[in-house]
Amino acid sequence: MTAKPSAWLLLGPETGEKDEFIRSLVAGTVKERRAAPEVYKFFVPETPALEIVSLLQNRLLFSEYKVVIVYGAEALPKGDAVLLSGYLERPSADSLLVLCSDETRLSSSGLEERIPLANRKIFWELLEHQKRGWVKSFFTKRGLAVEEEALDFLCETVENNTRELATVCERLALFFGKEGAIRYEHIEQYVFHGKEENVFTLFSGLVRRDFAVCLEILDKMLLSRDEDAVRILSGVSWQLNNLVQFFLLLDRGVPREQAFQKLSVRSKRQQKLYGDACANFRLEELLHGTAVVSRFDPLVRAHNQNVHRILLELFIYDFVKQRPLLKYAALT
Questions:
Q1: Could you tell me the pTM of the whole model?
Q2: Architecture of the 195-331 domain
Q3: 273 within 8 A of 201, measured Cβ to Cβ
């Protein structure tokens, strides 16, 4: 009889497929044991490893099996990684530990090596043609057509992972029902003029260097509870990196229209956004912005959600005003 895995390590930036794999793991335990397991989700560093290990080792009163999912495993402090590594030497037979990270390697205290190679998976983000195919297939299955310009715009404005794509496409499908083809103006209206603020409207505010508007958008995003600080910074970083590539092409003397073509920036709104960026930022200031994202990303991962709002507000101030309000050392 094949031994059941006691742990999985799920790596990489493709969060949608990772979510689906976790669902299949849970469904597999239901089929095997004919009962639903208890599922627990923890985020590093909000829950200490001692509490996680205690849960893994102790028996439950109302369930025979449990699945414990730990997100942000790359941020595990050394002591916590050692604790989990020690648990994996003698894992519990009624528990499954699933470690998740957006990175492609774990560097913490040999924890990755404790998990058999067969139980480690890397989920890579979609290539551009895969992304277009995924979106087109999504709408086709729901009886909706999508025009090419709309498809281009959607692929430009949504991050390269199927979790984000599924969220946006599902809402669009519900919004439009089965009323013909989804056109460019539909998606433009939904993404930028809908009642819900999102990381794209926030980035638009950052590009305009409008501090007050950015704070208002951030407040609405956090109140909706659909966004968290890590995902917000990730979304800003993704859009900012694309914008920096545009500036670098211009800096090499590439004409603006040719730069748009090289980067597949086809929608008029996105081109206008890049034009606004050219009016409001220099290349050095955008590079400063990427450095600001790099500083704040580990900070939000290392601190409790209670301080995420103030960290994001400090990030916006530094990005827009191009100077830190507080020394970063005071936050570490």
A1: 0.60
A2: Up-down Bundle (1.20)
A3: no
